[in-house]
Amino acid sequence: MKYIKSIKDYLIDPSQLIEDLKNNFQEFKRKLKNEGDETRQAYDLLSKASKGELLDVEGKKRDLSEEEIRFIKQQSVDILKMLGLTSLSILPGGTLVFILLKVFKQQNLITPSSFKKED
Q1: In DSSP terms, which residues pair with 55 in a beta bridge?
Q2: Predicted confidence (pLDDT) per residue in 29-62, tens digit
Q3: How far apart are CA 20 and CA 3, in angstroms?
Q4: N or C, which end of the chain is more exposed by having fewer CB within 10 Å?
Q5: In whole angstroms, what is the distance from residue 97 CA to residue 28 CA?
Q6: Which residues contact 76 (CB under 8 A, 6 or more apart)?
Q7: Number of domains observed in the structure of the chain
Q8: Neighbouring residues of 107: CB distance < 8 A, sequence distance ≥ 6
Q9: Are 116 and 34 in contact (CB under 8 A)?
Q10: Above 70 in pLDDT, residue 8?
C-alpha cells in the first residue's frame, strides 16, 4: 500500500489528502489493536500454563500444544520488534534508520506481523 500519492493528485483535491490520512490512521489503529489482542492471548496462555490451568476437552490438565508454543514465540518476537520500533523512534537519527531499512528492503526485521502487508 502506498501511503502518499503524488503531490499533483492532492493539489487538485486537498480533501482527498485528509481522507487518505484518516484511512491510514484507522488502519494503523486496527493493526495496533490486533497486535494488542494477540499479545493478550499469548499472555493468557502463558499464565494458564504456568498455573496448571490449561484443560483439554475432557477437563484434564494439559501442556501447551506445538501450535500454541509457536504462537507464543511469534508474539514474543513481535513484542521485541515493537520495542525496537519505539526505541528507534525516540533516538536521534531513528528516521534515517527507518529510511535505510526501507531502501535496503529490510523493514521485515522491525515490522510486527500485524503490520505486514496482506497479500
Answers
A1: 61
A2: 999 899 999 999 999 999 999 998 888 888 889 9
A3: 8
A4: C
A5: 21
A6: 42
A7: 1
A8: 98, 101
A9: no
A10: no
